[in-house]
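Predict the 3D structure for this chain.
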Amino acid sequence: VQLVESGGGLVQPGGSLRLSCAASGFTFSLYDMNWYRQAPGKERELVARITSGGRSTTYADSVKGRFTISRDNAKNTVVLEMNSLKPEDTAVYYCAARRFGTYYWGQGTLVTVSS
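Done. Predicted structure below.
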Protein backbone atom coordinates (compact mmCIF):
# COMPACT_ATOMS: atom_id res chain seq x y z
CA VAL A 1 0.00 0.00 0.00
CA GLN A 2 1.29 3.43 -0.92
CA LEU A 3 -0.11 6.92 -0.62
CA VAL A 4 2.21 9.57 -2.00
CA GLU A 5 1.38 13.23 -1.48
CA SER A 6 2.80 16.05 -3.58
CA GLY A 7 2.26 19.74 -4.16
CA GLY A 8 3.22 21.24 -0.83
CA GLY A 9 5.48 24.24 -0.50
CA LEU A 10 5.76 27.86 0.54
CA VAL A 11 2.98 30.25 -0.46
CA GLN A 12 2.06 33.78 0.51
CA PRO A 13 -1.15 34.53 2.41
CA GLY A 14 -4.05 34.68 0.00
CA GLY A 15 -2.36 32.32 -2.40
CA SER A 16 -3.31 28.87 -3.64
CA LEU A 17 -1.86 25.38 -3.67
CA ARG A 18 -2.98 22.09 -5.14
CA LEU A 19 -2.12 18.93 -3.21
CA SER A 20 -2.28 15.56 -4.91
CA CYS A 21 -2.22 12.05 -3.50
CA ALA A 22 -1.44 9.03 -5.66
CA ALA A 23 -2.64 5.71 -4.29
CA SER A 24 -1.57 2.17 -5.07
CA GLY A 25 -1.69 -1.30 -3.58
CA PHE A 26 -5.35 -1.35 -2.59
CA THR A 27 -8.77 -0.98 -4.20
CA PHE A 28 -8.92 2.79 -4.19
CA SER A 29 -12.54 3.06 -5.30
CA LEU A 30 -13.75 1.26 -2.16
CA TYR A 31 -12.16 3.71 0.26
CA ASP A 32 -13.23 7.07 1.56
CA MET A 33 -10.34 9.48 1.09
CA ASN A 34 -9.28 12.10 3.57
CA TRP A 35 -6.90 14.98 3.97
CA TYR A 36 -5.66 15.59 7.49
CA ARG A 37 -3.20 18.17 8.72
CA GLN A 38 -1.01 18.62 11.73
CA ALA A 39 0.42 21.98 12.72
CA PRO A 40 3.42 22.27 15.05
CA GLY A 41 2.36 21.60 18.62
CA LYS A 42 -1.18 20.68 17.62
CA GLU A 43 -3.12 17.47 17.15
CA ARG A 44 -3.81 16.05 13.72
CA GLU A 45 -7.17 17.25 12.41
CA LEU A 46 -9.44 16.25 9.57
CA VAL A 47 -9.48 18.86 6.82
CA ALA A 48 -11.65 17.23 4.16
CA ARG A 49 -13.20 13.89 3.29
CA ILE A 50 -14.72 12.48 0.14
CA THR A 51 -16.70 9.26 0.02
CA SER A 52 -15.64 6.29 -2.06
CA GLY A 53 -17.88 7.16 -4.98
CA GLY A 54 -17.19 10.85 -4.75
CA ARG A 55 -20.81 11.84 -4.12
CA SER A 56 -20.33 13.36 -0.69
CA THR A 57 -17.72 15.66 0.81
CA THR A 58 -17.10 16.98 4.30
CA TYR A 59 -14.94 19.91 5.36
CA ALA A 60 -13.60 21.33 8.57
CA ASP A 61 -15.31 24.61 9.41
CA SER A 62 -11.97 26.38 9.19
CA VAL A 63 -11.56 25.55 5.48
CA LYS A 64 -15.14 25.61 4.17
CA GLY A 65 -15.44 27.77 1.10
CA ARG A 66 -11.68 27.83 0.57
CA PHE A 67 -10.67 24.18 0.07
CA THR A 68 -12.10 21.63 -2.35
CA ILE A 69 -11.50 17.88 -2.30
CA SER A 70 -11.98 15.75 -5.40
CA ARG A 71 -11.01 12.29 -6.60
CA ASP A 72 -10.48 10.36 -9.79
CA ASN A 73 -11.15 6.66 -9.25
CA ALA A 74 -9.82 5.83 -12.71
CA LYS A 75 -6.45 7.36 -11.85
CA ASN A 76 -6.40 6.45 -8.13
CA THR A 77 -5.81 10.03 -7.13
CA VAL A 78 -7.31 12.51 -4.70
CA VAL A 79 -6.73 16.24 -4.87
CA LEU A 80 -7.08 19.06 -2.37
CA GLU A 81 -7.39 22.49 -3.96
CA MET A 82 -6.55 25.17 -1.40
CA ASN A 83 -7.39 28.83 -2.02
CA SER A 84 -7.22 32.00 0.05
CA LEU A 85 -4.57 30.40 2.20
CA LYS A 86 -3.92 31.80 5.66
CA PRO A 87 -0.89 31.50 7.94
CA GLU A 88 -2.94 29.25 10.20
CA ASP A 89 -3.18 26.73 7.34
CA THR A 90 0.52 26.02 7.81
CA ALA A 91 0.90 22.32 8.60
CA VAL A 92 1.97 18.95 7.33
CA TYR A 93 -0.88 17.64 5.19
CA TYR A 94 -1.54 13.92 5.09
CA CYS A 95 -3.57 11.85 2.69
CA ALA A 96 -5.43 8.96 4.30
CA ALA A 97 -7.61 6.16 2.97
CA ARG A 98 -10.35 4.80 5.22
CA ARG A 99 -12.62 1.81 4.95
CA PHE A 100 -14.44 0.59 8.04
CA GLY A 101 -11.73 0.51 10.72
CA THR A 102 -8.77 0.41 8.37
CA TYR A 103 -6.65 3.47 7.67
CA TYR A 104 -3.73 3.86 5.29
CA TRP A 105 -1.57 6.99 5.58
CA GLY A 106 0.79 8.88 3.36
CA GLN A 107 4.06 10.40 4.54
CA GLY A 108 2.78 13.97 4.44
CA THR A 109 3.64 17.14 2.58
CA LEU A 110 4.51 20.43 4.22
CA VAL A 111 2.48 23.54 3.46
CA THR A 112 3.85 26.82 4.73
CA VAL A 113 1.81 30.01 4.39
CA SER A 114 3.99 33.01 5.08
CA SER A 115 4.97 36.35 3.65
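The mean pLDDT is 97.
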